[in-house]
Amino acid sequence: MTDFLPSRKELLNALASIAAPVNKAMKKGQETLEDIAEWLWVVIQGDFAQEQSTTQVVTGTVISMIPFVDQICDVRDICANSMKIKEDSNNPWAWVGLILTLIGLFPVLGSLFKGIFKVILAPVRRFMLRPGTKALKFTGGNIYKLAEPAIESGITELNKFLARPAVKKAIKEAKITNIYKAIATKVREVKAIVTKQELLKVFDKLTGYLKQTVNFIEKYASRGVALKAKQMLQAVLEVRNLANQKLGLFLKPVQEFLERLAVRIDKEGDKAFKATTNVRNLTQFRRVSDDEELEAFRKQKPDWVHKKVENRKLPFEQETVDPKTANTPLHPSLGNIQLALSNGRAHPLTDAYKTFTKGLIKAEEFNEGEVLVRVLAPGSFDNSICWMRKSEFLKLKSRKEWRDKFAVWASWNNNGEYLEYTVPKGKKLYAWEGPAASQERGEFYIKGGGMQIVLDPNDLIASGLNKRKLTGWGYGTDTTIGDFSVVGVPVLKAQMGDFSLAPRLKYK
């Protein structure tokens, strides 16, 4: 096709490997250049595409796993930043988002650190592109402070990324002993060369890729798609011209941000590599991803995981509606509760009804002195939504029984510790109780049926939360990945989720 785009065969093979197949045409071996052109159009739109097919959604999330198609993702990111700037060229956050995108593509990074930078900065860039960010006061020095929840999310994703076997291998081959210190050093190296000239150099390179892509789309896609792609290119070119005047205004704030980011990564390195006598460093304990867990099941299925039988229903079918009614005004909604939290995420009760068995959710009132129990991992929040009665907890004999009975994937909760909540004197706690629904993943499922309790974390009173204790089941994921052992006495450290920016629900 071009110097930038892969060959037709390469692209189709790559897409087939992750989307199997891309569309009906591919199934029949009837794929066309028009198929590729129109798929490329959706990809470069990114979040601006209004009607993405299932295939396009899937490939949009994992496409960067394909080396030569990774450049298309870079083009997509530039398009997203440019369209945001086109909405309001005076929005400083949009320009900072563009700069963060560009510095993640500096040649000095190399393939390993380019991937690392993308992982760390992706949540930050998404924060910059949010509509609500525009209203935040931009002072230069507050970039890090306002984006800190997104940065912490990036650090979490970084830890997952570094745990991948392929990444571990790359780190080993590069003879890097402390990857966090190496990342911090690389951040400072990038900081030192963040100039308008370097940023524009990368911008121009990506613009060239975009031109090639649009030319291909114009040649082979439908007229309507070709026109839209051409308009997208024109918008990016206009932002590129405007960048000559605008980029220089934000260099110092971005450099300050990068230094604070380097300091944060240094601290993560200190935690990961700190030698503590007789204690395993729990900061290295991470949640496995859904895909990792599924792959582990396929290699060696744990006895708490069951293989699905064709045409047979799951033991406990998931609820499909929010149980809240006019008769339960004091109980929280378990539906689509999209409230802004201080960590930038949706409210944890959103769609929580799906964790219950259909038709068996009951509204419960817990009175003063009643005790609930929550099983949790070292990094879990004390004040979360999932609990059980103490009597239910005492029946459990092992973490495997807990996983199967309460339908808890290893990627959801790594376990090892538990916490009691005693309803304080003179108080009531309004919650929902019922059998946990079965959960399925790929060709596997976990049974469910245990009597779980779901509540609003805002309703928990700190004085009622007792200190963490060991379950006696040991730490671990109960899969072939992510397990570890703790030597000596673990630090049973409380960790509270911050829901301070979440508005109180109407029933409060």
Brief summary of the model shown:
With about 500 residues, the protein is an alpha+beta fold. It has 16 helices and ten strands.
**Helical amount:** 40-55%
Count the strands? 10
Name the average pLDDT.
78
Poorly predicted regions:
14-31, 47-68, 274-286, 483-490
Strand order across the largest sheet: 2-6-9-4-3-5-10
SS-derived structural category: alpha+beta
What is the secondary structure topology, with strand pairs?
Elements: H1 8-19, H2 24-27, H3 33-45, H4 54-62, H5 70-87, H6 92-103, H7 110-129, H8 143-162, H9 165-173, H10 179-192, H11 196-220, H12 223-246, H13 251-273, H14 290-299, E1 306-307, E2 362-367, E3 371-376, E4 386-389, H15 390-395, H16 399-406, E5 417-422, E6 428-435, E7 439-441, E8 444-446, E9 451-454, E10 469-470
Antiparallel strand pairs: 1-8, 2-6, 3-4, 3-5, 4-9, 5-10, 6-9, 7-8
Helix pairs in contact: 3-5, 3-11, 5-6, 5-11, 5-12, 6-7, 7-8, 8-13, 10-13, 11-12
Characterise the protein shown here.
The chain has about 500 residues and is of the alpha+beta class. It folds into 2 domains: about 10-275, no CATH class; about 310-470, no CATH class. Helices cover about 45% and strands about 10% of the residues. It has 16 helices and 10 strands. The strands form 2 sheets. Strands 2-6-9-4-3-5-10 form a 7-stranded antiparallel beta sheet. Strands 1-8-7 form a 3-stranded antiparallel beta sheet. A hairpin with a 2-residue loop joins strand 7 and strand 8. Helix 5 (about 70-85) runs antiparallel to helix 6 and helix 10 (about 180-190) packs antiparallel against helix 13 (about 250-275). The longest helix has 25 residues, at about 195-220. The termini are far apart. Residues about 15-30, about 45-70, about 275-285 and about 485-490 have low confidence and may be disordered.
